[in-house]
């Protein structure tokens, strides 16, 4: 679930792209890159966290008033330098691109590119196939010609072709040398893409397109909303904004953005992430009272950080004390998006410290946003037991995750999903808790859609209900995709000298 950003400004953009990446760090911790342009591209990238990769001395020489940046959480390919984004090519024109999402039919498209078009793919990234297809369709015309309307028409045709051929999820920011900044969102709107405007004193405007609104306030951009499913936006070199929906299909924004991925201060597709998490906690507490009326805990403790918001409303609804009984070291990153199981397991104990005063001799109810592999929950329960809890209840604001995601969350195989292979009773025993309760799917959707100016009828929750909106995901295809990602990851881990 990478973070992407593109900025068109009247001043150099590199520093603002860096600042945006800091505000999108929660979406990807593996690698990051910044690319700017004037008459040529300037780029800098590396493996690791944004602060580890760039020094001011790296960022300031990146010239130009237009640029894009990316923070990566891999869902395809490996973890090597060649898979870092933004990607760019020099012919035709000079086009660069950053991608959030995952292209399901990448293997077929890659074969076509290699075997039929005899073109070279320099990475194992699905995003590269998208870049080549976009470049191909923009190959006519010249960058000397200055007709922005003409270019936008050509761009819309190119993106429409991508919509017809590329199955999966993709929110894209791109720069075309000599032309300007481009952004588009797949026709189902699976991954988020928001935009903002900053009016200058001279009346001109700067524009930003990003995965989330998180950096807008700091950079002085006013949030203007979301790109619609199937919408293309273009800011020409002279600063004119063009927007057009070229092909909308059934809108299916990913529900897991609200559950876990997005930062709580973001508003995505008209719904406040923070408020949706409060409603998740409220709905879950109402069910708890219905299903387990005699089991009122002494204290409600979140599995920090993401679950904090839902735990707050859960405790409020139950009339029980909310307590930060597990302290999370803020300097350690998110566990779930770490690339391998060894790193994830090690990390839970390393970053969380139980507080005896909040746990000992108490009936503790732990709220987490999700139980995916069960790594976090099992480890936390052990820690809370060690600190003397009398009984432990565990609730998850996300229903059981039983199916792989092929649209941008790196859970591509059922083998690693605890709920795909175990009953709730088995999971309860595995976690070592007295009561385990999951949110149900209806209550989750209700929590996301209850308020806000939005058009969400049914979010994508394929990981819970198996309803895959695109990519012709059959049982046979699932098996192929599971094997393929497993091979990718294994070879990446071998290169890193690390087991899975
Ligand atoms: O069942 P698992 O595979 O362990 O995954 C689920 C856990 O991972 C995430 O936390 P994470 O530590 O990534 O980050 P957070 O601080 O945002 O909660 C999520 O919030 C759950 O706690
Ligand atoms: N999480 C994402 O959006 C990943 C984008 C792209 N598929 C990659 O692996 O880099
Ligand atoms: Mg967590």
Task: Walk me through the topology.
Elements: E1 3-8, H1 14-23, E2 31-37, E3 41-47, H2 50-53, H3 56-59, E4 66-72, E5 87-89, E6 95-103, H4 106-116, H5 126-137, H6 148-165, E7 168-176, E8 180-185, E9 194-199, E10 205-210, H7 216-219, E11 222-226, E12 231-236, E13 241-245, H8 256-261, E14 267-268, E15 271-272, H9 273-291, E16 299-302, H10 308-318, E17 321-322, E18 326-328, H11 341-351, E19 352-354, H12 356-359, E20 363-368, H13 375-386, E21 391-396, H14 418-421, H15 424-431, E22 435-438, H16 441-449, H17 462-465, H18 475-496
Parallel strand pairs: 16-17, 16-20, 20-21, 21-22
Antiparallel strand pairs: 1-4, 1-10, 2-3, 2-4, 5-6, 6-7, 7-8, 8-12, 9-10, 9-11, 12-13, 14-15, 18-19
Bound molecules: 1-O-pyrophosphono-5-O-phosphono-alpha-D-ribofuranose, glutamine and magnesium ion (MG).
Magnesium ion binds at residues 303, 306-307, 368, 376.
